[in-house]
Amino acid sequence: MTASAVTPESVLDAPAEPKDILSSSDKADFDLIAAVRELGLPDEISARVELLIEAQKKRQRESAQRLQTILDSVVEGILIVDGVGRVQDCNKSACVLLRAQHDDLVDSGAEEMFIDRKNTVRHKLLNRCINISSGILRYDYTETMGQRRDGDSFPMEIIVSPAHFMGENSFLYIFRDITRRKQAEESQKKLEGELREALKLEAIGHLAGGIAHEINTPSQYIRDNLKFLNDGYGSLSRLLGSALNTLWKHRDSLPEGTFREFSKQMRDADLEFLLDEIPHATQQSLDGINQVARIVLSMKEFSHPGSSEKTATDINRILSNVIVISRNEWKHSAELTEELDPELPHIPCFVNEINQVFLNLIVNAAQAIEMSGRSVEEGHIHIKTTAIDDQILVSISDNGTGIAKENRSKIFNPFFTTKEVGKGTGQGLSITHDIVQVKHGGRIWFETQMGKGTTFHVLLPGDDRSGTKAPPADKK
């Protein structure tokens, strides 16, 4: 068949030789248009074929560009890794996540993205990915620690999936940085832990009233019985003294040896010691049981369910209860003194929240003294209340470490703490600030000096100012 007799249909149905040549894998870069021209086809058919080839090339370029755009837009890093663990290609996100250039990643070992240099993570993934017994290829997933090229590490989620490129078995490594997720999970765990503690304390609070009643009942009759014994001892002591005096006066008229035997029994019983010490013992017992009663009463008032409305509150009584409740927190660190103004007016407060404010401040003061290394005799906490017009100023001072300059602006920030891990959540002063300024419309600020201590001032208004914008706290 001559070239002039060739029709378009016959070109499409042409023998397979040219098509085999054009589709041969080792001739991938062959110039198709030049090949068509060499066939000597009519100009019209040649032009049509060239247009078809150009259109196909354009579609391929557009498809490749679209695919590359999609890959570069994906937030996950993608590596194409061959069977021996060498990176063949990667997307833009992989370069960003691993902090490397494209050329640095290509032909490098895939194991460099793992902190585990023994490749155990990668090998486990591959072993699970290729089921040797069944020959089935499947993807697998894990979380591990990734290694950036600048030496930084990050928590990484990675999926390894089998893939075929150019007739060879390869693997897709699809990974992402999960630092934020891990931080969120840690924050969630922390909040859940704090919630559990809060629920536990709430349960204890509900039980405290009943426990206080149960303790108070036996305490009451123990106290009454001790008082009875103490009062009765005085009468018996006077009666015994009178009897001894009578015996002494009439000793000569008694049967022989009677007074001597009685005197011996007195010495054996150590009567003089008993007469001196029994009143001390009963008085100490009375003091102890009175202290128990004060603690029980303070616990009962401290744990009383709070009202949803503000109630007229005696701040001095609140402080006295908190001092009793928190005694175990400060008695090993400092001496505590009170200077409470007896003329304080009652002011509207949420009692439970104000309890928490003063408890936080007293415990913080004790911990600051403990951190300073002062002995119990050297440590000192001073609590003072003052009436200022219709407002109440409460000042809680310590001679602890003081607050460093770089921390003073952050002291009321949520989760900020200078305490050791496990000793502070960074929530105490943040909550205190919110209770004072937002819920009560008051002010809280501090004065501090490094090495000498800190004084926190709480100014509470005499009227209800909640819901009004509070002035900013001073931080001197």
Write a structural description.
- The chain is of the alpha+beta class and 476 residues long.
- Among the domains are: 31-72; 306-464, Histidine kinase-like ATPase, C-terminal domain (Heat Shock Protein 90, 2-Layer Sandwich), CATH 3.30.565.
- The chain has 15 helices and 14 strands.
- The chain has helices spanning 8-12, 16-23, 32-38, 43-73, 92-98, 102-105, 120-129, 179-249, 258-268, 271-302, 315-325, 327-330, 351-372, 405-408, 428-439; strands at residues 77-82, 87-90, 130-131, 136-137, 140-147, 153-165, 168-177, 311-313, 335-339, 347-349, 380-388, 391-398, 443-449, 453-460.
- It has a five-stranded antiparallel sheet with strand order 2-1-7-6-5, sandwiched between helices. The protein has a five-stranded mixed sheet with strand order 9-11-12-14-13, with helices on one face.
- The longest helix has 71 residues, at 179-249.
Layout of helices and strands:
Layout: H1 8-12, H2 16-23, H3 32-38, H4 43-73, E1 77-82, E2 87-90, H5 92-98, H6 102-105, H7 120-129, E3 130-131, E4 136-137, E5 140-147, E6 153-165, E7 168-177, H8 179-249, H9 258-268, H10 271-302, E8 311-313, H11 315-325, H12 327-330, E9 335-339, E10 347-349, H13 351-372, E11 380-388, E12 391-398, H14 405-408, H15 428-439, E13 443-449, E14 453-460
Parallel strand pairs: 9-11
Antiparallel strand pairs: 1-2, 1-7, 3-4, 5-6, 6-7, 8-10, 11-12, 12-14, 13-14
